[in-house]
Amino acid sequence: DLRKQARQLENELDLKLVSFSKLCTSYSNSRDGRRDRYSSDTTPLLNGSSQDRMFETMAVEIEQLLGKLTGINDKMAEYTNSAGVPSLNAALMHTLQRHRDILQDYTHEFHKTKANFLAVRERENLLGSVRKDIESYKSGSGVNNRRTELFLKEHEHLRNSDRLIEETISIAMATKENMTSQRGMLKSIQSKMNTLANRFPAVNSLIQRINLRKRRDSLILGGVIGICTILLLLYAFH
């Protein structure tokens, strides 16, 4: 008698879980289709309150059936543990374990389907709230938002220009410092050269004489080359 009741409850649970899974699937598909159909974000995503009520009703019914089936399994366990049925104890234990496995599978499937449904509904509620806020923001202050964006862009341009000017000034200051240091180095070299020239006037005069002699030798050599060239030309034309 307990096995008959367990089988009847299992059949009812199987039908209920199939309908419950179809309800959750149709709920998700309807929300996806509505999102694709109303891309302007002006229609709320969750106006299927009838589906929500049906979900709650079916969830309560399935939980009640699971509770009844759990009670039947407990009664069968008490019967197998009672005295007077030692010869049938192994077979009864096998039957009881099979019904427990079926109950566990149904419970797992129910909780999984319920969690998926709740996740989809929570996501749609969140998306609907965000879309509603975005739509109200767009429709309520479009012109002001446009002006604000322009002001922000202009402010960003000014900040970039200010930053570039500061970088240019810093580069100019660094260049000025380098030129100042180079000028100081050149002045020090010039002063050292003057000091050397003042210390060794004989060397300076010797260098000047060498330069004068070099110029004189260049003039003499140039004159000789010129005279030879003229003589060669006269001989050739003669």
Automatic annotation (TrEMBL):
It is found in: Golgi apparatus membrane. The keyword Transferase does not apply. GO terms for biological process: endoplasmic reticulum to Golgi vesicle-mediated transport; inter-Golgi cisterna vesicle-mediated transport; protein transport; vesicle fusion. Residues 28-49 are annotated as: Disordered. It holds the Pfam family V-SNARE_C. Keywords: Golgi apparatus, Membrane, Protein transport, Transmembrane, Transmembrane helix, Transport. One of its GO terms (cellular component) is cis-Golgi network. The chain crosses the membrane at residues 219-237. GO terms for molecular function: SNAP receptor activity. It is a single-pass type IV membrane protein. Belongs to the GOSR1 family. Involved in transport from the ER to the Golgi apparatus as well as in intra-Golgi transport. It belongs to a super-family of proteins called t-SNAREs or soluble NSF (N-ethylmaleimide-sensitive factor) attachment protein receptor. May play a protective role against hydrogen peroxide induced cytotoxicity under glutathione depleted conditions in neuronal cells by regulating the intracellular ROS levels via inhibition of p38 MAPK (MAPK11, MAPK12, MAPK13 and MAPK14). Participates in docking and fusion stage of ER to cis-Golgi transport. This is Golgi SNAP receptor complex member 1.
